[in-house]
């Protein structure tokens, strides 16, 4: 009997170790930048298709112009970021002096903490983008979109990217974050950010359940309202509890009544006028 119990315990331990090794192998060897990009691009295509068939606001007409303007910004940003920031980000990861290389925690806990820390940083930075006038100058280009859809998720001024990526690189260095954990965190972040900007609805009952844990489309619609009190709420990207914890959570009864954009910037939708947004009042 005694042998049997020991045998059982050993058997279970071996199974756990094997599962753990598989997880480590998948993350270390198989989850790369290419996989992240495939995941993000396929999410984008799925959401674009759903938006075309079941749009929440308006129809598909005039969408081509809107998408191409936002796409121009995305391509412009991607070229600059790839040349200037990818080397900095790679250098700032897994630093020997960083916290995760000083305090040893389990593999699974380190992934979880990395995701949580990066999500809090993005919440905190987002609040600053709204509260610090100089930062708002850059961030308001993202909010000036009057026809928010999935492409708005990537419509950011290059100045905002420069600030955000510099802060993130510092955080990676301080915590000695591993590149593969950053890629996992970014994938979760990007998939949810695409979903919350898309011109669709999960329907209110499903949205209500979803937003208990994560930032939902109906939460983020409020954040893109042209009413300042509503814009200055719902700053989260992945976990919705930061908004509840810091009392920045707002939900409206009927999201259909929301008007997107920034008052006074309704006409600033072309590539050049978007780039010039920070220099406008
Ligand atoms: Zn915002």
Strand content: under 5%
The structure class reads mainly alpha
Number of domains: 1
Distance between the termini: 80 Å
Average pLDDT value?
Answer: 87
Major pleated sheet: none
Q: Give the SSE string.
A: HHHHHHHHHHHHHH
Total number of helices: 14
Whole-number radius of gyration? Answer: 21 Å
- Low-pLDDT runs of 5+ residues are 1-15
Q: What's the overall geometry?
A: globular
**Helix content bin:** 55-70%
Ligand catalogue: zinc ion
Strand count: 0
Structural features, described:
With 281 residues, the chain is an all-alpha fold. The chain has one domain (31-279). The chain has helices at 2-30, 33-53, 63-84, 86-92, 99-102, 107-131, 133-143, 158-175, 179-197, 204-213, 217-223, 228-231, 241-245, 271-276. Helix 2 (33-53) runs parallel beside helix 9 and helix 6 packs across helix 7 (133-143). Mean pLDDT is 87; it is low at 1-15. Zinc ion (ZN) binds at residues 126, 130, 139, 143, 223.
């Amino acid at each position: 009997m005694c042998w049997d119990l020991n045998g059982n315990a050993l058997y279970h331990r071996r199974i756990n170790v094997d599962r753990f090794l598989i997880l480590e192998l998948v993350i270390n060897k198989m989850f790369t930048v290419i996989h992240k990009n495939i995941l993000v691009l396929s999410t984008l295509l799925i959401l674009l298709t759903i938006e075309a068939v079941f749009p929440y606001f308006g129809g598909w007409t005039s969408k081509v112009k809107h998408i191409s303007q936002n796409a121009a910004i995305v391509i412009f940003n991607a070229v600059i970021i790839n040349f200037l920031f990818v080397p900095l980000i790679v250098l700032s990861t897994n630093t020997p002096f960083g916290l995760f290389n000083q305090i040893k925690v389990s593999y699974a806990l380190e992934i979880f903490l990395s995701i949580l820390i990066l999500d809090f940083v993005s919440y905190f930075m987002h609040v600053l983008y709204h509260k610090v006038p100089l930062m708002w100058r850059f961030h308001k280009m993202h909010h000036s979109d009057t026809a928010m859809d999935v492409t708005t998720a990537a419509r950011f001024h290059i100045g905002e990217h420069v600030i955000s990526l510099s802060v993130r690189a510092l955080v990676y260095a301080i915590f000695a974050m591993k590149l593969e954990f950053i890629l996992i965190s970014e994938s979760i972040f990007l998939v949810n950010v695409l979903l919350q900007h898309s011109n669709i609805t999960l329907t209110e009952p499903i949205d209500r359940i979803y937003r208990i844990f994560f930032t939902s489309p109906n939460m983020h619609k409020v954040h893109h309202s042209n009413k300042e009190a509503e814009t200055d709420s719902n700053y989260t990207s992945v976990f919705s509890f930061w908004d509840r914890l810091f009392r920045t959570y707002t939900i409206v009864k009927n999201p259909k009544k929301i008007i997107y954009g920034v008052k006074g910037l309704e006409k600033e939708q072309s590539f050049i006028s978007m780039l010039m947004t920070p220099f406008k009042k």
